[in-house]
Amino acid sequence: MRVGVTGHIHLAPETEPLVADALRSELDRISDRPVHGVTCLAAGTDQIFARTVLATGGTYEVILPALDYRDTIEPAWRDSFDELLARASSVVHTGYRSSGTAAYVAANQELLRRVERLVAVWDGEPGCHAAATDRTVDGARRRGIPTTVLWPAAARRAPRRT
Q: How much is the pTM?
């Protein structure tokens, strides 16, 4: 089964293990076999998802929004990004040279084209741009892609890291 992910980048540190547990439970619920994940490998949710997929015996592919995408990732998350990118079964580029909303929207659209299910780690709050989690969830639902929204009871977002 091909499962995509969308979700918040900035999660409070104590929320990350809660999200990992929720993702593991959801992956176990939707498939009795390891899944093939699809992710843009952003910090936060996407990287937690990739690690959870690996821990459950699955594989994942990465969709890179733009050629400069790595440079846009906060320095604290780059080593994790590099490690997880190296472990991907495949990497797809959207064709954009520079990161930005258009590239992120294109990556989300490509992700939705490749999946049978979507898992969203989302607090239910509306986003502030066209590539926000709520827009990806809405797009999946419009396409008829089964979508599960996860937000553990004690979860909270964190301010942007510097």
A: 0.95
